Amino acid sequence: AMALSFLMYPVLRSLALQVHSAVTGSYISGTHSVAFINCLNEQIAKDIARAIMDKKLAACVNILPKSSTLYFWKGEIEESTEILLLVKTRTSKISELSSYVRSIHPFEIPEVISLPIDQGNPFYFKWLEESMARD
């Protein structure tokens, strides 16, 4: 019984948080994430952003202006300019987003990393939910 209780704790905690969120309207930390994707140029960035939106893998994609990047590639330090995409999405969609970006991105190993959103404007989170297809 003790082992079962220990194993069920994460599931029960998650359910309790979801019920609390539904009743109080409060945000559950980590429900949404921001993903970062680097692109070679603005046209590629726009094409990938549009493809992500068409697949309803995000509610919003910001395209930030080019930045200088230093990185290791095949044992050497490389330098280039890249365009950064900030993708606002549901955390549950990160795996699908990453797979999709890998399938369309011209880089051999595209950057797709994400951070969960801890807090923010509850009205923005409501808009995120309404803007995206359900899982």
What is the structure about, briefly put?
This protein is α+β, with helices and mostly antiparallel strands. It contains four helices and four strands; from the N terminus they run H-E-H-E-E-H-E-H. Strands 2-3-1-4 form a four-stranded antiparallel beta sheet, covered by helices on one side.
Main sheet record: 4 strands, antiparallel
Give me the count of strands: 4
CATH class of the largest domain: Alpha Beta
What name does CATH use for the topology of the largest domain?
Alpha-Beta Plaits
Number of individual domains: 2
Number of helices: 4
**pLDDT < 50 stretches:** none
pLDDT averaged over residues: 88
The secondary structure category is alpha+beta
In percent, how helical is the residue content? 40-55%
- β-sheet strand percentage: 25-35%
Rg, rounded, reads: 18 Å
Written as H for each helix and E for each strand, in order along the chain, the element string is: HEHEEHEH
User: How does the overall form come out from the CA principal axes?
Assistant: globular
Give the termini distance in whole angstroms. 33 Å
Main β-sheet, spatial strand arrangement? 2-3-1-4
Can you name the CATH architecture of the largest domain?
A: 2-Layer Sandwich
Task: Give your account of this protein's structure.
The chain is α+β, with helices and mostly antiparallel strands. It has two domains: 1-26; 31-132, Alpha-Beta Plaits. It has helices spanning 2-24, 42-54, 94-104, 122-131; strands at residues 32-39, 60-73, 76-90, 112-116. It has a four-stranded antiparallel β-sheet with strand order 2-3-1-4, with helices on one face. The longest helix has 23 residues, at 2-24. The protein is globular. Pfam families: CutA1. Keywords: Signal. One of its GO terms (biological process) is response to metal ion. InterPro entries: Ion_tolerance_CutA, N-reg_PII-like_a/b, N-reg_PII/ATP_PRibTrfase_C.
